[in-house]
Amino acid sequence: MPSTVSRVQRTAPPTEPAALATEPPAGERTRPARASVALVAALLGFTVITVDVSAVNIALPGIRADLHGGMTGLQWVVDAYTLMFAALMISAGALADRAGARRAYAWGTGLFALASLACALAPDIGTLIAARVAQGAAAAVVMPASLALIRQAYDDARRRARAIALWTVGGSVAMAAGPVLGGVLSETVGWRAVFLLNLPVGALILLLLARVAPSPRRPSPLDLPGQLTAVLALAGLAYAVIEGGHAGWTDPGVLAAAAVAVAAAVGFRAAERRHPAPMVPLSLLRRREVGVSLAVGFAVNAGFYGVVFLLGLYCQQLLGMSGIATGLMFVPLAALITSTNLVSAPLADRVGRRAVIVTGQLILSGAMFALLPLGAGTPVWLILVLLVPTGIGGALAVPALTALLIDAVPAHRAGTASGLLNSLRQTGGALSVAVFGALIASGEGFAVTGMREGLVVVGVLLAGTAGLSWRLLAGGAGR
Question: Among 474, 418, 431, 469, which residue's Cα sits nearest to residue 291?
Fold first, then answer.
């Protein structure tokens, strides 16, 4: 699900990193013209990294045909980007603080453009995956720096809230446009054009940044041991899940990757306990509202991004639809998500966050089971109808759980908590792609039985986190 803002005037946005929580020096004000330029630059960056996720999903069949990569390779094309994005998101805000928002944003944009060029020129699947790793690292810098840029540009709280709202709407529009754009480019020019499109956008962002006021630098310690162990843990876990589904769970490489993931997770906990400025203070995780928010965010993204990955391949490989037609399938879903986001916060004010969070998960859980009848002969109109609860469920839960998380932590930890939530959400999506990809792989075809097994697994996961939310948020915690 794309990130959304809940009650913008009262809480931090869900993707707000640590860099956004800091105040500009006293008296620092930006002229309206410069502020608008900064907003456009920030909006373009958020849009391009969001489009890249959804557009690439539709381009996967073309990539497979051209580079001769199997299902494992396609999973890594998606997850290499998502995992680096997730792992580096937690501490990327510190880089924006140390280097200054404008400089960090320029670095991230430049790296993203160069990595996109490498993706477009990739001669084989291995090179493409390596370039996607670089793209994910760059996106992790762009996301928090773009928000820090808005924070710097708008001193007035009301104007800043409106700017952040526009920023998040851009993400929703990008989510809708991405599949269509990916389908059109893949069908008419080729899948490489999906990545080449990032180059002129990156150049435009850099030109706009030349008109943005320089950003102040602030001392901000980097937690390198925590960051390295986080990357190792996520990469090891993803490798074990992806390769285990193809090579077997007792394969030596799979077992070694699982061992690395466990050892790195233990090392991460030890590093966070000892570091003077940990990127994830363990005290935050002891609060039940924080734990519930992270678990729900993980499960919701596992459901949503798992379905997006599945349907992109299902429509093209099993139903024989074109890339353009497949992309258009996601437009009603994105519109439904955007409209449901708008009603989530007022509804939570009326009936309580606990009820909204639980209801959203149950709807999304039901959506997984509603998709079980999909097969080779399912008409398109029925697929669109069955996707309705998928759009409503997650979009209903995410704004409420984000507000719950932000209100549960001290103000100076809001950015850290938001970064952690978004990292867990990205991880949920990455692991869901890994699991679904392993289950649907069937030679060169598409295993409907595996798709249904994956839907049941995620449906049960969402039902479980709904029950956890109902129990742990009782007694006023979920208001």
Answer: 469
